Amino acid sequence: MSVLVNKNSKVIVQGFTGSEGTFHASQMIEFGTNVVGGVTPGKGGQSHLDRPVFNSVAEAVEKTGADVSIIFVPPAFAADAIMEAANAGIKVIIAITEGIPVKDMIIAKEYISQYDTTLIGPNCPGVITADGAKVGIMPGFIFKKGKIGIVSKSGTLTYEAADQVVKAGMGITTAIGIGGDPIIGTTTKEAVQLLMADDETEGIVMIGEIGGNLEAQAAEWIKEHGTKPVVGFIAGVTAPAGRTMGHAGAIVGGEDDTAEAKKRILRACGVHVVDSPAEIGKKMAEVLGVTA
């Protein structure tokens, strides 16, 4: 079993022929992802990376049966790309684009709520199921198949956590990079729920950061409904108050938004919190009783 994407997923790339789309689509194909085509308006009928190019997502879905889309569309047009994908029947939309205007995302999130679709991102590294599919920009060689799921706001910390977990002998089921923008499609809690329900996932790494209350919401749910151990890390302990740090959503708006406050909440809810990202793999191994 897997979460969101697997070897049977039929993936299209929106912004297929651009430099970012081309580079990452080629990496996804090399990983073994079933990329069935891509979309670049005005270039329909062409071939790119030995895959067909379509003018619209609707045409791509009709011709290929695609059910997953990854978006490498410039910020000014990315919200429209998200809505187009939902309207065309795509079930999992992964928006990599950074810098989409908040106003645009408010409209897009409301629009796609009427469809049976799951949005990951924007401003995220994507989703990867080890030995299944890489739909994103993460370095695929790090993710070896195993039993730990990852939910993270941070791209680089996703890779760091995966590397530690793999080296500790546990491996990865699915890693979900939810993105660090103020408005995202799938929350920390929703991603944790997906992994809690996955038969192959035995433990979960939850990586958060300053700003917002997504981690607290997830922790409260874990306290009430969690059935698997969760190791947590919150980035931004040394961040100055009131300043955006890295991600557009990583800004402290109140006393509960700080890293220390979030860590207290997580610990109170039974999450195994580490103070350094270097401790993630070791802590998970300790919690599961795994010896290298």
Automatic annotation (TrEMBL):
<dbReference type="GO" id="GO:0009361">
    <property type="term" value="C:succinate-CoA ligase complex (ADP-forming)"/>
</dbReference>
<comment type="function">
    <text>Succinyl-CoA synthetase functions in the citric acid cycle (TCA), coupling the hydrolysis of succinyl-CoA to the synthesis of either ATP or GTP and thus represents the only step of substrate-level phosphorylation in the TCA. The alpha subunit of the enzyme binds the substrates coenzyme A and phosphate, while succinate binding and nucleotide specificity is provided by the beta subunit.</text>
</comment>
<feature type="binding site">
    <location>
        <position position="43"/>
    </location>
    <ligand>
        <name>CoA</name>
    </ligand>
</feature>
<feature type="binding site">
    <location>
        <begin position="17"/>
        <end position="20"/>
    </location>
    <ligand>
        <name>CoA</name>
    </ligand>
</feature>
<feature type="binding site">
    <location>
        <position position="159"/>
    </location>
    <ligand>
        <name>substrate</name>
    </ligand>
</feature>
<dbReference type="Pfam" id="PF00549">
    <property type="entry name" value="Ligase_CoA"/>
</dbReference>
<feature type="binding site">
    <location>
        <begin position="96"/>
        <end position="98"/>
    </location>
    <ligand>
        <name>CoA</name>
    </ligand>
</feature>
<protein>
    <recommendedName>
        <fullName>Succinate--CoA ligase [ADP-forming] subunit alpha</fullName>
        <ecNumber>6.2.1.5</ecNumber>
    </recommendedName>
</protein>
<dbReference type="InterPro" id="IPR033847">
    <property type="entry name" value="Citrt_syn/SCS-alpha_CS"/>
</dbReference>
<dbReference type="InterPro" id="IPR005810">
    <property type="entry name" value="CoA_lig_alpha"/>
</dbReference>
<dbReference type="InterPro" id="IPR016102">
    <property type="entry name" value="Succinyl-CoA_synth-like"/>
</dbReference>
<dbReference type="Pfam" id="PF02629">
    <property type="entry name" value="CoA_binding"/>
</dbReference>
<feature type="domain" description="CoA-binding">
    <location>
        <begin position="4"/>
        <end position="100"/>
    </location>
</feature>
<dbReference type="GO" id="GO:0006099">
    <property type="term" value="P:tricarboxylic acid cycle"/>
</dbReference>
<comment type="similarity">
    <text>Belongs to the succinate/malate CoA ligase alpha subunit family.</text>
</comment>
<keyword id="KW-0816">Tricarboxylic acid cycle</keyword>
<feature type="active site" description="Tele-phosphohistidine intermediate">
    <location>
        <position position="247"/>
    </location>
</feature>
<dbReference type="GO" id="GO:0000166">
    <property type="term" value="F:nucleotide binding"/>
</dbReference>
<keyword id="KW-0436">Ligase</keyword>
<dbReference type="GO" id="GO:0004775">
    <property type="term" value="F:succinate-CoA ligase (ADP-forming) activity"/>
</dbReference>
<keyword id="KW-0547">Nucleotide-binding</keyword>
<comment type="subunit">
    <text>Heterotetramer of two alpha and two beta subunits.</text>
</comment>
<dbReference type="InterPro" id="IPR003781">
    <property type="entry name" value="CoA-bd"/>
</dbReference>
<dbReference type="GO" id="GO:0004776">
    <property type="term" value="F:succinate-CoA ligase (GDP-forming) activity"/>
</dbReference>
<dbReference type="InterPro" id="IPR017440">
    <property type="entry name" value="Cit_synth/succinyl-CoA_lig_AS"/>
</dbReference>
<dbReference type="InterPro" id="IPR005811">
    <property type="entry name" value="SUCC_ACL_C"/>
</dbReference>
<comment type="pathway">
    <text>Carbohydrate metabolism; tricarboxylic acid cycle; succinate from succinyl-CoA (ligase route): step 1/1.</text>
</comment>
<dbReference type="InterPro" id="IPR036291">
    <property type="entry name" value="NAD(P)-bd_dom_sf"/>
</dbReference>
